[in-house]
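Researcher: Next entry in the queue.
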Amino acid sequence: MNRLLIALLTGYAVVFAVLEVLYLPVYIGTVAVPFGALGAALTNAMLVHAAGWFTTRTSVAALPVIGWLVAVLVLSSGGPGGDVLVPNDWRALLLLGLGLLPAAVILGRHLGGASARRAVSGS
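Model: Structure for this entry, 123 residues:
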């Protein structure tokens, strides 16, 4: 059951990656407002936190953010006509930074909690 839930969370991460890449080049007037990067910060942290509830292994809890990263990298590559979904400017770096940093913090907390649980249990 836990494997199915982790797979489901990873699938959600891939779907969120597609949506976040599509909302990355949004403008309000003449100002670029990268809503996709802000969404990545929230969704990746929540998905990794949720995955941490179902496993004690940090590598398994990282699967949603790994799926997200693979999807963003695939969407960043050019298509057959040379079209690219991710703009080649600061918004792409912001997407990667805000998508990976909060998830890494949650994974670090998960890793610290796992080592504390091992220390308490004496193994």
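Model: The chain has a mean pLDDT of 90.
Researcher: Noted, moving on.
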